[in-house]
Amino acid sequence: MAPAIAVRIHWNLAALRGIRPHEYLSRFALGGAVSALAGLATAHWGPVIGGLFLAFPAIFPAGATLLDKHERDKKRHAGLSGEIRGRLAAALDARGAAMGALALAAFACLIWKLLPRHAAALVLPGALALWLGLSILLWRLRKLIVHLVRAR
Amino acid sequence: MQIAYRFLAGGLIVSLFSLLGDVLRPKGFAGLFGAAPSVALATLPLLILSDGRDGAAVEARSMVAGAFAFFLYALACTWVLSKKHWKVTPTALGMLSLWALCAFGGAAWLLRSP
Questions:
Q1: Cα B17 from Cα B80, distance rounded (Å)
Q2: Given this model, what pLDDT does residue A1 score?
Q3: By the 8 A CB rule, do B89 and B48 touch?
Q4: 8 Å CB contact of B67 and A101
Q5: Taking CB atoms and an 8 Å limit, are A95 and B54 in contact across chains?
Q6: pTM for this prediction
Q7: Best interface-test mutation with B: which of A19, A44, A104 has the largest number of B CBs within 10 A?
Q8: DSSP category for residue A53
Q9: How many contacts does A have with B, using Cβ atoms within 8 A?
Q10: Are the CB atoms for A114 and B3 separated by under 8 Å?
Q11: Residue A113 pLDDT > 50, yes or no?
Q12: CA atoms within 13 A on the CB side of B83
């Protein structure tokens, strides 16, 4: 595999040290609020409208804001503004979310088609595995395309 | 009671996927977790219990429209942040109107189809 696409996926647990308690709380509250809203929307407007909120961007806006803030803070400590770096890091995060969203559509499609005829205990884990596998595949595929375009 | 369960489960699962996004590297890969099926995983088990598998499948059909709206939202955020140099928080929040427009447009189409 070409070096440009053989990117190693790894953990950086030290990144957790930079997150403050109120940031964890705000994510918890946002995720809880969107899930509750999805239930209320189903109760008031029916499952067609309620179902839309199952794919609401609940993680990305808070994540991108935090990423931007942390990147700017890092640069500020070095005496630089960091605004451009924060914005580009958030743009990179958004690009990843776009690929994840395509896989999310496949996740929903699988549940829509298979859930009426098969056990939920099989369909839900299967859909999650599909989301993860397809997300990684799309991400790798994009890396490969960028590598091939640059190599021409 | 159902709303309280949804709030707790949604909060926990969104937090879990957010943490994965924080610790995974490279950053571009971690971005995938910004579109994890967190709200769906918190909500669908309860829906299956209350409305049955057919009812949950109807919501999953709408979720396809919501996911395509999310895709357009994320593409728009990528373009605006990298090319137009807008600030991150107003972009991420303001572009939610694009998600709503596309998602509700998709729902209107679904409501008209058999």
A1: 25
A2: 47
A3: no
A4: yes
A5: no
A6: 0.92
A7: A104
A8: G
A9: 330
A10: no
A11: yes
A12: 6
